[in-house]
Amino acid sequence: MVSKTGNKRATWLVLVMVVLLLVGVLPVPAAYAKKEVQITYWHGWGGDEKKVVEDIVAKFNAEHPNIEVVPVTVFGSYDKLLTAIAAGTAPDVTSSVWWYQVPDLASRGALTDLTSFARSSGVKASDYVRPVWESWHYKGKLYAMGSIANYSMIAYNKDLFKQAGLDPEKAPKTVAELDSYASKLWQVEGNRILRVGYYPSDLNTASQMFRGKIFDGQKVTVTSPQVIQAANWMRSYYDKYGYQAIQAFIASQGNYASAANPFLSGQMAMQDNWGEWIVNFKKWYAPNLNYGRFPYPTVDGSPGFANWGSSVWVLPTGSKHPKEAWEFIRWISSKEGSKLLALGITNASVRLDLNASPEFLKAMPTLSAALPLLREGRLSVYPAFPGVDEFLQKLGNIMDTVYSGQTTAEKALADLQKQY
Amino acid sequence: MSTGPRKRHGELRWGILFIFPWIVGFLVFVLFPLLFSLYYSFTNYNLIGSPAWTGIKNYTGLLSDNLFYISLWNTIYMVILGLPLHLVGALIVALMLSANVKGLAVYRAIYYLPSVIPLVAAALLWRWIFNPMFGILNAGLSHLGLPQPGWLIDPVWSKPALILMGFWGIGGSMVLYLASIKDMPKELYEVADIDGANWLQKILRITLPMISPIIFFNLITGVIGYFQYFTQAYILSATGYGSQMQVGGPRDSTMFYALYLYINAFRYFAMGKASAMAWILFVILMISTLVIFRSSARWVYYGGETRS
């Protein structure tokens, strides 16, 4: 008798536990499921920018009576996105993807082909900055669309230019001019750096300043003469001012987004890769900064270029409402959506017409320096190919051995080329 | 009388019932993924799509992967150099804290305190301590007229820097030593005093043998922990921002095994390769643990045993 009741009790307990377990695993029904179609949207914005994105999504929802977009902030979601797709829990649409990851994700089968959607919605390539539009494609198919972008150039401190006897309104047009400006701006005392004039930051950009490419669109080309030349040019800065000294300077920098950023604090006269976020950074961290921006100059004096980058909107494989999710992408990429988002978070647009508009130039004064570049498509090419992360990690390490003088650029890059 | 076995049977059932949640958790979240990772290690799997069987290609591929050896070497460096220093450091502090001096509780709290701080927070703090230009460490060295290494930016000094930082976290091992030392019978020392033993003899002949089971425990957990060295390197070696962030530098000098495994799995999404790495690590850990266990008969002394 004793064992029988015990048995029964045990069975009940097991049942209760199983039920509890299942309840823990099953998703809780969403708080607001009023509309016909509800789509989840992962994005990577937090803080004030999150509010901007949420307001814009609310506007979209108001304009679309049958669609409810639910925004979720998900940080570092490139990892999470792939895991979610594998687990079948991917969001319907996400913008936590960088433009250069599109080929990698598409080649893995992680993205939905948007080509026919775009065709039937009448999306026009000519509305967009050409290289930006092209970056949304992989093997001739459209996999992503954008809304906002940053066109980054070399930022310079006008006050430091004046101090050094340079004309703050005359930007260097060639690599040689850049070098001569830089040498006037550097200040070194013994082996201690007081002020950095300039040093080139990455081989991809430098190669294009020397009119070459580390990736030609098909394959890695790090042994081309222009790339070698660029690598040696970069090394010349480390040779001149000391590898250890420059490394120490870089490592000693505070948080990039803070008043301790060396360009904002006046410890650096010229610095690569400043996008439109410089407007806010000046406002928040360095109100007295007197800055300008100029395109990356070239070795032969041919017109310079800008680097660029942007988040893109994609439909992960397994999106449950592709049609509605596409409508959201189309809208955020349209003149209306792009304008709201770009001005909201102080970014430039992927659309040609918006960047040239008075509102944009008022909000982002140095965007004017980029306008001719955008019109002519003079933007740098990023090595966007499947496996790019691993390639860049290797390139970074290999270039470190070049800067430190352990090996020559020719040898190091030939070693890297062999692996591709 | 006849209820005996039946009662025991009932107890077994209750026992199983009570560990039922754990069994489910173990099967679903540990054993099942574990076995799957073994399967994945023989496949090409990028998380999306189905894994494709490739035999031992992941394993042979690792043998010709330079970074695999570098990461293994970096890790062994930490196990062979970092761990002993960690264990000895913890032991010395424990011995000092077992002395009878005023304000002992305060000292104990102070030495244990850093172990309470989350690893990530501690690593971010040490990033500033190691800062080559404005860091407090180099400021101190320069005050003493000593050379100031680049620490985290110098491939030669990056691992010693991590070992140095490791001293900060000796609190956990130290507390175990301390408890064991405090637990020892006083008579042993009294007898030694009568026999005229000095402090070093007392430590070598009494303290160390008596706490050898704890040393053994700290050694085993330490070996496993150091082979999985990850968090500090991930935080301290990070350069660049957002999507451009790189870890393991300078020049791969802090690319540890677990870090390289993580990068393969969650940056490059080479799940097959990462799984193969995990299983190789498993084998390495099994062998090292076995060797330590085998050797323990020679040097670990349990109070209840007599030596043969």
Outline of the structure:
The complex is a heterodimer of chains A (420) and B (308). By secondary structure, chain A is of the alpha+beta class.
Keywords:
heterodimer, A: 420 residues, alpha+beta, D-Maltodextrin-Binding Protein, domain 2, 2 domains, 5-stranded mixed beta sheet, 5-stranded antiparallel beta sheet, 19 helices, 14 strands, globular, B: 308 residues, mainly alpha, MetI-like fold, two-stranded antiparallel ribbon, 14 helices, 1% strand
Give the SSE layout.
The complex is a heterodimer of chains A (420) and B (308).
Chain A: H1 2-25, E1 37-43, H2 47-63, E2 67-73, H3 77-87, E3 93-98, H4 102-107, H5 115-121, H6 130-135, E4 137-138, E5 141-142, E6 145-146, E7 148-157, H7 158-163, H8 175-185, E8 187-189, E9 192-195, H9 203-209, H10 225-241, H11 243-251, E10 270-274, H12 278-285, E11 291-294, E12 307-309, E13 311-314, H13 322-333, H14 335-345, E14 348-349, H15 352-355, H16 358-363, H17 371-376, H18 388-403, H19 409-418
Parallel strand pairs in A: 1-2, 1-3
Antiparallel strand pairs in A: 3-13, 4-5, 6-13, 7-10, 7-11, 7-12, 7-14, 8-9
Chain B: H1 3-40, E1 43-44, E2 52-53, H2 57-63, H3 66-97, H4 104-112, H5 119-129, H6 136-143, H7 158-166, H8 171-182, H9 186-194, H10 199-210, H11 212-227, H12 231-236, H13 257-266, H14 271-299
Antiparallel strand pairs in B: 1-2
Helix pairs in contact in B: 1-14, 2-14, 3-7, 3-8, 3-11, 3-13, 11-14, 13-14
